[in-house]
Amino acid sequence: MTITSAQPDRFEIWRERLSGSVASITITFIIVMAVGLLWVGPRFVSTSNIGIIGSFLVVPLIVGACAGFALLAGVVDLSIGSMVGFASALFAIQIAGGMDPWIAAPLTLLACVAMGAINALAIVHFGADAIAATLGMLTALRGMTWVITGIGGASGAIFAFHPGLFGMANSRVLGLPVLFLLAIVLSLIAAGVVTKTRLGRHVQAVGGDDKAAARAGIPVARVRTFALLLSAFGAGVAGIVFVAQLGSAARATGFGLEFQVYAALMIGGYSILRGGVGNPVGGMLGLLVVAGVSNIIELKAISPYYTNIIVGALLLGAVLLDRLRGGDPYE
Predict the structure, then answer these.
(1) How many structural domains are present in the chain?
(2) In 3D, which of 197, 186, 153, 227 has the Cα closest to residue 58?
(3) Which residues pair with 131 in a beta bridge?
(4) Residue 6 lies in a domain
(5) Residue 268 — φ and ψ, nearest 5°?
(6) What pLDDT, on the 0 to 100 scale, is given for residue 2?
(7) Range of the structural domain that residue 211 is part of
(8) Do 203 and 223 form a contact (C-beta atoms < 8 A)?
(9) Which of 277, 276, 258 is nearest to 319 (CA)?
(10) Which of 51, 101, 158, 238 fits a disulfide with 92 by CB distance 3.0 to 4.6 angstroms?
(11) Does 307 reside within a domain?
């Protein structure tokens, strides 16, 4: 009798583990890697190819690691893509004017945090709808980006090449971009904060049920303000990194990035419909899966539109899994 009763419990434990968001995206990641190896061959996992993928993933990884906190707190920040564009333009115009990068970077981050504070003021303290408020910020930041890049020249681009900054941003270790490795470490640190610290538990609790969190003594307004400021700060860092990598900024920088990041985060197990659900590791793997699919399509010289079809299917599958989990607590 004892053995029989223990078996369903063990089965239930494994069923929950395998149906969890991180397990689902891990399996998907393994499948993408297997398809890449079988279809493309060894060059898919070559250092040079991973380095190319990693260079393009640095900005989305930084944005995703920070914006994920806003999602966990129950806030969708649509302004992150335009925030990256604004930060890149502001940083680039300062570098082009001869300012030291170590002075220009803090000033840029301060401006981005100020924009994040406006989001927090509207959403947290005045009760504005998060989608509407951050959509307004998206539009305003995109306009400011066009104004700043217009100052840089009629081409709509600002050339801000700084040899030291460029060399540091494009340095490599064992053939892999240092910034890519640091972005992965940032995602792992974010996962540690979410899963192992009181702050992480508070963010999840606020996103899961803000009224229950308030009754438990959690400062809901403070937590959501922190999440929005962190989202803006991460986008600011990503904008600076973008300029450091390329030595320039353009009007279209960051355009549509919010959809790219949020699609990958949802594939990785985050929920836009309900807060408190998601894991930075899952978000990181979601971005890697999307990048892997895109890279396979590119290496096989297939129309890039197939990437949209596959990513769309993965996103629909992620939404279905989220609904099937039925509001289970964060794992």
Answers:
(1) 1
(2) 186
(3) none
(4) no
(5) -85, 5
(6) 47
(7) 53-254
(8) yes
(9) 277
(10) 158
(11) no
3-class secondary structure, 209: coil
Tell me the HSE value of 154 on the side-chain side, using a 13 A CA sphere. Answer: 0
Tell me how far apart the alpha carbons of residues 76 and 297 are, in angstroms, rounded to a whole number: 30
What's the CA gap between 114 and 144, in Å, rounded?
Answer: 14
What tokens appear for 132 in the block? 């509407």
Could you list the beta-strand ranges (E) of 79-226: 157-159, 172-173, 176-177
Considering only CA atoms, which of 84, 113, 116, 98 is closest in space to residue 245? 84
- pTM of the full predicted structure? 0.90
* Geometric angle at alpha carbon 113, from 110 and 117, rounded to 5°: 135
Cα distances from 112 to residues 84, 137, 174, 265, 277, in angstroms, run: 9, 11, 34, 22, 26
Residues 234, 282: contact at Cβ < 8 Å?
no
CA distances from 187 to 82, 174, 205 (A): 21, 20, 20
DSSP state of 121: I
DSSP codes joined into one string, 40-95: T-GGGGSHHHHHHHHHHHHHHHHHHHHHHHHHHTT---TTHHHHHHHHHHHHHHHH
Consecutive sets of 10 residues in the chain, 331 residues long: mean pLDDT of each? Answer: 50 52 85 93 92 94 96 94 96 93 96 97 93 95 93 78 91 93 96 94 93 92 96 97 94 91 91 85 94 93 88 85 58 41
Domain membership of residue 267 (yes or no) is no
Helix/strand/coil for 250? strand
Q: How far apart are CA 71 and CA 135, in angstroms?
A: 15
DSSP state of 329: P
Q: Which residue type sits at 184? A: I
Tell me, yes or no, whether 282 lies in a domain: no
- Return the beta strands (E) in 174-283 as ranges: 176-177, 248-250
pLDDT at 328: 45
Predicted local distance difference test score (pLDDT) of residue 115: 97
